[in-house]
Structure formats: C-alpha cells, structure tokens
C-alpha cells in the first residue's frame, strides 16, 4: 500500500473529484469578489487570497495518485483543467500524460512549452516514450531521441515500428533474465543486488547465451523450492509467449484466458525481445470496449467531453448525415402509403410500435454478434447456424409479442383483422432485424472494417424503413 492510499483509503474517486471541484469553485468565487473591491490594498488582498486557494488545491493534488489526477483532468472543463494542470508538480507530468485519454492529452501537451515536454519525457521507459512520441512536436521528439543512449534509442525505434494494435507497440523492455544452469540461491542473490524489480514481475525469463528464451521461472517456484536446486529443474518449459507482430487484442484475450500477469515476447528465432504486462492489457481491453461503444453510435474517434463545439461537430457529423438520409428514406416509405393512413388513422398510431420493437431487437442481435466477433467465437463455418438460431429466436418473439400487441390493437380498435396484421408485421420485422443484425457486422468484417462501425445507426435505419413498409403494406393489402 502506498502512502497516498494509506492516508485516504475511504475516499472514492468521485469524492476526490468533488473536493477538487469545490476548491476550484472557492478559488473562482473569492477571486471574483476581490476583483470587485475598490481600495488601495485590492491587489495585495487579491494576490494573497489567490495564492492561499491555489496552495490548498496544490496540496490536495500532491496527495493523489497520477491516475486519479488524470481522471480529474478528464472530468474538468478546459479552463479548469489547465488551472489544475499548472499546479501539478513538474516531476509528475510524465506519469499523468501517460494516464489521460488521447483527446485530453492533446490539450495538455498544447499548453506545455518544449522544455516542459522534454523534462516530462526524460525519465520515461522506452515503451512509454513510444506511446507518447506520436503526439509530441517533431523537434521535441528529435531532441529527446538525441538525449537517449544507443540502447534506449533502438528500443524506442523498435516500438514505433509496429502498428498500435500489434504486440510490439505495447511490449515492455524492462525485465529480469537468468540462465538455466545456475542454482536458485544464485538467482536470489542476484535479485537482492538489484535496486528494485520491474513492475508486475511475477516470473523471471530464462535465456541461453544468445538470448533465446528457454522457459520462465515463476517467483513462487523460486521462493518455495530448495535453494540448491538448478533453475532448469524448476522452470516452466512451455510458457505462453507472443510475437511482436501478433494482434494485441488477441494477446489481451490470452491474458484473460490464462490468468497471466506478464508474458515474454520473442522474435521469429525465439530470441527474447520484451514482455507484455497485465496493466497494458487491461488498458487495451478498456480502450477496445470504449472504441466499440463509440463505433456503435457512429462516432469516429474518442472525444474529449469538454472539446470545442467545432471539434465535436467534426467527430459526429458523418453518421448523422447518413442517419438523416435513412430517416428521409423511412419518411418516403410512409409517404407511399399516405392514402392508407388517411383512410385508417389507427395505422399512424400503431406503426411506430412495429419499428421501435424491431430496432430494439436488431440492436440486441447486433450487440451479441459484435461481442462474439471480438471474442473470436464466430467464423465462416458457423455463421449459417448462428443466423438460423437468431431467426428462430426472432420468430418466437415475433409470434409471442406480436400476438400480445395484436390483442391490444383488437381491443382498442375492435378489429380482429388489424390485430392479425399487427402480429404478422411485428413477426416479419423482427425476422428482418435478426437477419440484418447478423449480416451487417459480418459484411463489415468481410470488407475489412470494424464490425461495430455505425452498426446501431444502420440497424435502426433498416428496421424503421422495413417496419413501416411491412406494416403499411400488409394493412393496404388486407384492411383496405
């Protein structure tokens, strides 16, 4: 437990945010009051109060973990965010920049001078520098690379050579390696000479003289076995390992499946070049989840909640434009049946029910399919079976709930034929929703796109237009 955690174990993250917001509010309030005062000592009083409030706020920030400060910065409007950011001690800038979201990091970096950015980045590890480098000004990156030693420079270049969704972009270079021909006692003495172990060290990596991975020695085996035993007799010979060009999300799934804390990364020749750790995998899974939610809603990228109006517009306009087109098409479908609606006003009251239930069912199906695709549970071999299953579920739901709403329609309008049409339309629209719920993400996958991209917008468009056409078409054929 850290000192910060020991001080305030009972505080939630929301409590800490509320305290910072309260201090900011108090600072602004007093500052505003002093601005309105008139008198010879106004400037002196204002300066004193200003400093007093900011000192108290800075003291509060000093108590918080960098991840908590990052959360607070993300939850504040831009002006307040920059006020808090200026109060953060310079030596903590780097840790916080790594914790905040990409959108918020952009606003913080824009507020920093080049020398501040260099100071924040100088103590970072190679993998951390690689994460931050694409967002730094080019001249800062060049100066930073020149300040690194040859090994660090090569590691940063190596990490930057991989795409952000590959294992190589996430691997950590800080790890402990040992030989397999030494005793456990020698290993223990070696560890005691180190200043500290790299974070998330649950195993040591056993390599030969050429750096080729031979196995891993879990710390728990090191501690419970006889110190005179050789590493080769105790180590695990078949560890889960990854290649740097593998998909990072598949690696994250392996971490969850095998309950890993760390795992080696090896090149094609089996040489150990880095490791993956659980903290990077958790961050990746969270980012992937957030990305899926954003894509389902048709947002192009992560958005700072307090971003400028123009920036938010740029992020949201494209799928809204598509939605407008689909809504217009749905309205034209209704326009085809204006005469039917005029002759039977009940149709206008009932048709939103058919479209709404269809949209909800389609979103359920598409969410399940996108999740299954993310977990690699769907392949070309089982797509047909999955489609049959979803159609069967929708058929049963359509008959049951369509029957219910059909009875309601019969009760309200005293027309059994309207009730039958309502039941049939509901069933057919749910079948359409199931079909589209499977085909839309599968088609996007075939096209090399994210299966969640705009899925919610597209399924709603299909079930709205389809629902209106089916219901009004059946009503025109059988009721009028």
Automatic annotation (TrEMBL):
GO terms for molecular function: magnesium ion transmembrane transporter activity; metal ion binding. GO terms for cellular component: plasma membrane. The chain crosses the membrane at residues 317-337, 343-361, 391-413, 419-445, 457-479. It is found in: Cell membrane; Membrane. It comes from the Bacteria. Keywords: CBS domain, Cell membrane, Magnesium, Membrane, Metal-binding, Transmembrane, Transmembrane helix, Transport. InterPro entries: CBS_dom, CBS_dom_sf, Mg_transptr_MgtE_intracell_dom, MgtE_N_sf, MgtE_transporter, SLC41_membr_dom, SLC41_membr_dom_sf. It is a multi-pass membrane protein. Residues 235-291 form the CBS domain. Its main location: membrane. CDD domains: CBS_pair_Mg_transporter. SUPFAM superfamilies: CBS-domain pair (SSF54631), MgtE membrane domain-like (SSF161093), MgtE N-terminal domain-like (SSF158791). Acts as a magnesium transporter. Belongs to the SLC41A transporter family. PANTHER family: MAGNESIUM TRANSPORTER MGTE (PTHR43773:SF1). Homodimer. This is Magnesium transporter MgtE. It comes from Pseudomonas mangiferae.
């Amino acid at each position: 437990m850290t000192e910060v955690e020991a001080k305030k174990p009972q505080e939630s993250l929301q409590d800490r945010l509320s305290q910072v917001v309260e201090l900011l509010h108090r600072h602004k309030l007093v500052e505003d009051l002093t601005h309105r005062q008139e008198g010879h000592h106004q400037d002196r009083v204002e300066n004193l109060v200003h400093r007093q409030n900011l000192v108290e706020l800075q003291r509060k920030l000093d108590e918080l973990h960098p991840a908590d400060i990052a959360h607070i910065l993300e939850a504040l409007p831009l002006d307040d965010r920059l006020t808090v950011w200026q109060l953060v001690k310079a030596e903590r800038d780097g840790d916080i920049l790594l914790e905040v979201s990409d959108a918020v990091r952009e606003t913080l970096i824009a507020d920093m001078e080049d020398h501040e950015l260099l100071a924040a980045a100088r103590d970072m590890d190679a993998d951390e520098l690689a994460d931050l480098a694409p967002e730094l000004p080019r001249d800062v990156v060049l100066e930073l690379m020149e300040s690194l030693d040859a090994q660090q420079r090569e590691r940063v270049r190596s990490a930057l050579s991989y795409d952000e969704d590959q294992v190589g972009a996430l691997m950590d270079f800080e790890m402990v390696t040992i030989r397999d021909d030494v005793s456990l006692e020698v290993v223990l003495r070696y560890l005691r000479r180190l200043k500290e172990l790299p974070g998330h060290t649950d195993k040591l990596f056993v390599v030969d003289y050429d750096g080729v991975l031979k196995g891993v020695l879990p710390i728990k085996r090191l501690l419970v076995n006889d110190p005179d035993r050789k590493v080769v007799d105790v180590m695990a010979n078949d560890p889960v390992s990854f290649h740097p060009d593998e998909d990072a999300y598949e690696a994250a799934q392996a971490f969850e499946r095998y309950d890993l804390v760390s795992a080696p990364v090896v090149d094609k020749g089996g040489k150990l070049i880095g490791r993956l750790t659980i903290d990077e995998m958790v961050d990746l899974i969270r980012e992937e989840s957030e990305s899926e939610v954003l894509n389902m809603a048709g947002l192009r990228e992560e958005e700072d909640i307090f971003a400028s109006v123009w920036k938010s517009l740029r992020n949201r306009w494209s799928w809204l434009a598509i939605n407008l087109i689909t809504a217009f098409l749905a309205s034209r479908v209704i326009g085809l049946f204006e005469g039917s609606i005029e002759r039977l006003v009940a149709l206008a009251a009932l048709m939103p029910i058919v479209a709404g239930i269809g949209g909800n069912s389609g979103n359920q199906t598409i969410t399940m399919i996108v999740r299954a695709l993310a977990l690699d549970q769907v392949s070309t071999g089982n797509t047909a079976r999955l489609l049959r299953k979803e159609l069967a579920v929708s058929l049963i739901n359509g008959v049951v709930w369509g029957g219910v709403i059909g009875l309601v329609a019969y009760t309200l309008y005293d027309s059994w034929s309207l009730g039958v049409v309502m039941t049939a339309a509901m069933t057919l629209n749910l079948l359409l929703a199931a079909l589209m719920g499977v085909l839309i993400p599968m088609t996007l996958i075939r096209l090399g796109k994210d299966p969640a991209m705009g899925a919610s917008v597209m399924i709603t468009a299909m079930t709205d237009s389809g629902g209106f056409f089916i219901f009004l078409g059946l009503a025109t054929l059988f009721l009028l």
